[in-house]
Amino acid sequence: MNPSARKGSILLERLPEEAILYDKASDRVHCLGKGALAVWEKADGTMTIGELAESTGQEPATVSGAVEAMEKAGLMEPGSYGPDSPSRRTALGKMAVAAGAALVMTIVAPPPAAHASSAPPPPRPDPIWPPRAHPEPPIGRVPPK
């Protein structure tokens, strides 16, 4: 099976050394390094891992690891990259050496309604408020009667 990237509900923002992808369907934010971004952009279901590696100038093990990470993050079409791919085992073994840094990082973004709230934040408890009705005397002094 040839890898195919999900692009329908994903917004892309390019940065100098990486790209940020926001998945509107799952409210998740993904950060892709340059190598993973190149693979994601070219993965249209027509190329094998080897062809993707050749077209992006990367090692097949690196491309396979990037596709696997993006599949786990939900950035690939379901079932477009199966566990029977021949370079998958090789990629797992070489992933740490070939990648050098994280290929894909994912966080969950708060829903848009959380940012649009006009209600003020809840008050913080103040440790000295309210004042004590009967303050305690300093240590060593007897309160007057």
Tell me what you see in this structure.
- With about 140 residues, the protein is of the alpha+beta class.
- It has one domain (about 10-110).
- About 30% of the residues lie in helices and about 15% in strands.
- The chain has 5 helices and 4 strands.
- Strands 1-2-3-4 form a 4-stranded antiparallel beta sheet.
- Strand 2 and strand 3 (about 30-35) form a beta hairpin.
- Helix 1 (about 35-40) crosses helix 2 (about 50-55), helix 2 packs across helix 3 (about 60-70) and helix 3 packs across helix 4 (about 90-100).
- It is elongated.
Would you summarize the structure shown here?
The chain has 145 residues and is α+β, with helices and mostly antiparallel strands.
Query: Main β-sheet, in a few words?
Result: 4 strands, antiparallel
Q: End-to-end distance, in Å?
A: 89 Å
Number of strands: 4
Sheet-strand content, in percent, reads 15-25%
Number of distinct helices: 5
**Which stretches are poorly predicted, pLDDT < 50 over at least 5 residues?**
95-102
Give the % helix. 25-40%
* Helix and strand element order: EEEHHHHEH
What number of domains?
A: 1
Q: Radius of gyration over alpha carbons?
A: 26 Å
Q: What is the residue-averaged pLDDT?
A: 75
- Principal-axis shape equals elongated
Order of strands, main sheet, comes to 1-2-3-4
Look at the helices and sheets and give the structural class.
alpha+beta
